[in-house]
Amino acid sequence: MSSTALTILALLGGSIAGVLSLTLVLWLAPRARHDLRAAAHETLAEPRHFTFRDGYLIENSENVGFLLSTPIDHLKAWSELIDVLGDIADGVEQAFRDLRDAGRSFRLDGVLGRDRISIMGVRQDEDIRITVSASETAQTTLRVDLASLEALQADTDLLTRSSDTTPTLSWVVDGTGRVIWANAAYCTLAERCAGPDALRGWPMVSLFPEQAGAPAGVTRRQVIDSKGETSWYEITSQPADPSGMRHVHAISLDAVIAAEDNLRTFIQTLTKTFAYLPTGLAIFDREKSLAMFNPALMDMTGLDASWLSRRPKLTDFFDALRDHRKLPEPRDYKAWRDGLSDLSRVDAGGTYRETWTLPTGQTYCVTGRPQADGAVALMLEDISADVHASRAHRDERDALRAALSAADEAIIVFSASGTCVGVNDQARDLLKLSQDGIPDTLDACLVAWRDLFRPSPAWGDLRGVVAGDLQDGDLVDWTETLVDHDGRTITLRVIPGKTGGLTLCFRPTDLPNQDTAPTDRPATTIAAPGTERVEQAVL
């Protein structure tokens, strides 16, 4: 045989041996995953479950080679199961992710060949359990893993208890607007409004009827119960799901409505009260816009009600006051206005208080108080009358002091309450008083004079005048003769006031032109500090 033929035979023999070897290897190697469509009816007759912990397959049923490759890779089993089941049912990848991340149980239905396939997933403590099963075509039933079924039932019970114990009303309506499901809060309200038989018929009574196809959103609705009491609810309607069902929820607004009514009544009461206040009131909100004012503000500022109703800013309000000459003109008006507009920087307490002397002669006491929410309350009080009265009082007091200083006699003036309100230098010299003055009250003076003069009934009479023991007919001038411990004689002239005041005039008897008798000359009224007026004879 030639060498060429030998070579051909050698090559042919090697090829045949290689084919036989490859066939043997393929026969002995683990067979790949079966086709699901061919084996579904036989292999899924019993449920198959897989238990994962932290993405690792820790337990699985027998005969799962049609779902996972053999040998099973426990690290890749999670993703491999998702890929295989994703061909059977929709939403497998998202359901697995929600179960792993949020512990959300699921049940998905798919079709494989002639069988309906059910895929269920639940979380049990740290483990995740996946169950794959097929329904029996003959009996139209579904075989499920008992542990998975119990977990799903526990989740269902938990959700049911949660929906029944929530105070929020929840219900589901179909595409025609009929109520097909409701929680316990809805049922309780239905019985209160429609009676105890409201839940016996079908469909369920609709407390908040709406037209079919009504848009989703938030609305306010009210219901009236069998007693005629009205309740308000905030209705939140969700868009319809693929099956046409709409989930609706309602929150009670009774407390909110009551609070709004109380606030409205309170504001009305404040408005009526502010309307009669003589103090001008302007309240600016957190944006420094005028939110409320009273009629006194218009009277005091001369601002028009229509302009105030346009809610001017605080700075514009000050500008208007300046134009109407209702505020003093500072050196730097802009800096003054900007500083006053931010009352939080006025002082540590954030309160502004100042007296405005206007070019018109009026005097306003202006108080600004910031509020916690950023609002500002500005109050204007006209104190012109008080300022004029204070000035008149000061003028009368200065006149009294001038009259006492110009008199030749030593004079002391007491008010109706027995308080010393005036004394001249002659009295200080004669009665040996200090420059600081005499004792504050008549009783204290009488105690001091007992040490200066010999006993005299005049002291008791003076107490009677101050105490009001004398009748109106007894309120006449009289004189008393006093003798000091040095033997010097001093004439005391007592002039009771009609309002209870008292004027005492002391004159030594050795002075020329001494007249100790009561005078018949008319008396001149001299105002004392306070509201009392005392009478002093013109000497």
By CATH, the architecture of the largest domain is named 2-Layer Sandwich
Distance between the termini: 181 Å
Shape: elongated
Ranges where pLDDT stays below 50 over 5 or more residues in a row are: 4-9, 22-34, 37-41, 512-539
Nearest-integer average pLDDT: 76
Structural class: alpha+beta
- Number of domains as seen in the coordinates: 5
Give the helix proportion (percent range). Answer: 25-40%
Written overview of the protein:
The protein is of the alpha+beta class and 539 residues long. It folds into five domains: 1-30; 36-159, YNR034W-A-like (Profilin-like), CATH 3.40.1840.10; 166-252, Beta-Lactamase (2-Layer Sandwich), CATH 3.30.450.20; 277-382, PAS domain (Beta-Lactamase, 2-Layer Sandwich); 389-537, PAS domain (Beta-Lactamase), CATH 3.30.450.20. The chain is 35% helix and 26% strand. It has helices at 3-28, 36-43, 77-86, 92-102, 146-165, 184-194, 254-275, 295-301, 305-309, 314-323, 333-341, 384-406, 425-430, 442-452, 458-467, and strands at residues 48-53, 56-60, 106-112, 115-124, 127-136, 141-142, 169-173, 179-182, 217-224, 230-237, 246-252, 280-284, 290-293, 352-357, 363-370, 376-382, 410-414, 420-423, 478-483, 489-496, 502-508, 523-527, 533-537. Strand 7 (169-173) and strand 8 (179-182) form a beta hairpin. The radius of gyration is 53 Å and the shape is elongated. The protein starts with a helix and ends with a strand. Keywords: Membrane, Transmembrane, Transmembrane helix. The chain crosses the membrane at residues 6-29. Residues 157-225, 268-335, 398-464 form the PAS domain.
